[in-house]
Write a structure and sequence with these properties.
By secondary structure, the chain is mainly α. 63% of the residues lie in helices and 0% in strands. The chain is globular, with a radius of gyration of 20 Å. The relative contact order is 0.12.
Amino acid sequence: MKSLLCYHNNEKKVKMERVVRKLTKNLGEPYSSRIGIDLESKKESEIFKWFLASLFFGKRISENIAMNTYRVFTSKNIYTPDRILKAGWEYLVELLDEGSYTRYDFSTATKLLELTADLKETYGTLTNLHNQAKNSKDLELKLQEFKGIGPTTTNIFLRELRVIWPKADPEPCSFVRGVAKNLNIDLETYNRHTKTFVRLECALLRLWKTYCRKNRCNECGFDAECKATNKK
């Protein structure tokens, strides 16, 4: 009986790992990598770029618009705190509009100026902010002390920093956990501070955004493994 149970557990683990490999290969490219940010360099400049992009992703706006807006900013060399502050409100609005971020252009321009000024005055750099945090929860709280930074933006920013910052360890969002459950993936069996987990989290989120929430279950390529699809 014990050997039979071990067999089923091993079989389940093999199936899970097979699905994870497929996910990470097909959908696991980190959002930061997709827009040309090199977080693995651990440079403050690259971390701030991802912070800037996370602010764009954090609003209820399409992924493509967020990425396009970030690319507009970098094409104009506006991707450091000093350059954002020097650009001024009107020019920031212009860049946001060029990226089609028109729905939140005024408020986002104001937020960018306030955030960068507060960051420089309080911590100097994002790396210093991380170093001064006591633990992962304190890190999240410190980020959310900035006006306009909520749990969603904090999660977006920190989840791809898991292998860069030791204290970056946000809880996977409900969408990620939901898709993982439907695919019989036990997230608790994985070390969060690995590239594999970062790619897995990105893949699950991308699967939800592209297919699950749009009821495109027969197009995702994982319908055979998905409990939600099989229930229909």
